[in-house]
What we know:
Low-confidence stretches: 80-85
Shape: globular
Number of strands: 3
Distance between the termini: 11 Å
CATH superfamily: FAD/NAD(P)-binding domain
Strand content: 15-25%
Number of domains: 1
Structural class: alpha/beta
Largest sheet: 3 strands, parallel
Number of helices: 3
CATH topology: FAD/NAD(P)-binding domain
Mean pLDDT: 84
Order of helices and strands: HEHEHE
CATH class: Alpha Beta
CATH architecture: 3-Layer(bba) Sandwich
Amino acid sequence: MCQIESSSSVVIIGGGAVGVELAGEIVHKHRDKKVTVLNSGKSLLSNVRLGEKLQDSAKSALEAKGVEVRLGEWGFLILVFFFEK
């Protein structure tokens, strides 16, 4: 079984193109999961030269689908995963 299917939530570290796409795919295929994107920058897609309007649009689109977007989240990041057997 896929670990996403057996988890209640998913945390994606990084709000670049891959992180944004992954969050969108997970929330589309697994509507019952809590999806959170943590990004160290002040906006999503900050490593891609797309402009603020598109960066804001990506954030709004994910949030409209229920994804929690947390910007400026870095420093000491500790993730603990609990898996039920």
